[in-house]
Amino acid sequence: MKNIIVLGAGMVGSAMALDLAKNHKITVADLSLTALEKLKVNNSSISTIQLDVSNIEKLTEVITPFDFVVSAVPGFLGFKTLETIIKSYKNVVDISFFPENSLSLNDLALEHNVTAIVDCGVAPGMDNFILGRYNEELQLTDFECLVGGLPKHKKWPFNYKAPFSPIDVIEEYTRPARYIENSQLVTREALTDVEKVEFEKIGTLESFNSDGLRSILFTMPHIPNMKEKTLRYPGHVEYISVLKSSGFFDENPISINGKEISPIEFTSKILFKEWKLNPNDEEFTVMRVTVKGTDNKGITTSIIYNLYDEYDIKTQTSSMARTTGYTATAAVNMYLEGLFIEKGVFPPELIGKQKECFDYILNYLKDRNVIYQKEIIS
Q1: Number of domains composing the chain
Q2: Do β-strands 184-188 and 344-346 pair in parallel, antiparallel, or remain unpaired?
Q3: HSE (side-chain half, CA atoms, 13 Å) at 146
Q4: What pLDDT, on a 0 to 100 scale, did the predictor assign at position 166?
Q5: Report field, pTM of the whole predicted structure over 0.90
Q6: Chain centre distance of CA 212
C-alpha cells in the first residue's frame, strides 16, 4: 500500500481517487471544499486537503510526504503543476492535458530521477498506448483516432455535456489542429474537415479536426499519415462555428459600460450551465483507433480498436471519468508494481511499445468493464 495524493477532485479526479483507494492510502487536494466534501461522502477513508495548486510553495509543501502524485488539474494549470511535482522529486501520472509540450520537461525529470507519465487518459492516452504497441509490430503508414464523449439525451442547441470545464473544451475548438499527411505537417483551424461517421449503437456522428496528436508528432515522426478527430452529434460544429466566428471565443477584453470583459471568459460562464454534466446524467464515450501498416512478410494489415462505454449506474460514475481515469490509475499501479521503471517524461506511446505494459493496461480496464474490441483487417 502506497501513500498517494491526487491533485483535483473533479469528476475524473474523484473517480481515480475512489479506484486507487481500493489498494492504497489516498489523499485528494482541491481548491473546492464542496468537491472534497462530496468525495468524502463516497469514501470516508480518503483524506482531503484544500489547496490552490497555483501556490507553488504550498503545493511543494503538501506533496512532499507522499510516495506518488496523480495530477488531474485543469489544463491551464497543468504544465506548471507538473514542473513543480518533478522538481519535488515525485513520480507522477498526469491527465491535465495542458497545451505545452510535456517532452520539454524530460531533462528536468531525468535530473530529478523522476518518472512522469503524461497524457494518460482515453485520448490522448489509450490511443497512444495502441499506437506504441503496433509501432513495434508493423511498419506503420497510417494512424487515425476518432473520439468523443456525448450525452445519451440530446438537448438543443449543442447536444453536448462535458465533465471538464468549458474553457478546456473551448480550447479544443480554438487551438489550431496539427496532423501529418504524406509525411508533411499540416496545420488547419479546428472544426474543419467535417465528416459523417457511422457507429454501432449510436448512429451518425460528425468528426472534425482537433489538435489531438500532441506528443506523437515528435515521438512518431516516421509515420506518414496521422490524424485525430473529435466526435459530436450532427449540427454541433455549426453552432460552435457561429460562436467562434462571432468573436465569443476571443481573449482580448472588450469594454462594456466602462468595464473590461473577456469574451471567452463570458462565454465559458454561460456555457458552464449549458454543458455541465450532472452526476446522474447518462453519457457515453466512443472511440475508434485505426493503425495500418505492413508486417515482416509485406502483408498490409489494419488493426482497429473500438470502444463504446456508458455511464455506470451502479457506481454513478461517468463514462468519461471511467475511460480517462481508469487508464491513469492503471498506469499508477503498473508503475508501482514495477512493470515500468524508466526515468524521464513518457507519453503513453513510449510505454505501450512494451507488450507487458500494454497488456496490463488493457486487462486493468477490462476488469473495470472498460472494454476495447479489437478487429484485424488484412
Answers
A1: 2
A2: unpaired
A3: 21
A4: 78
A5: yes
A6: 10
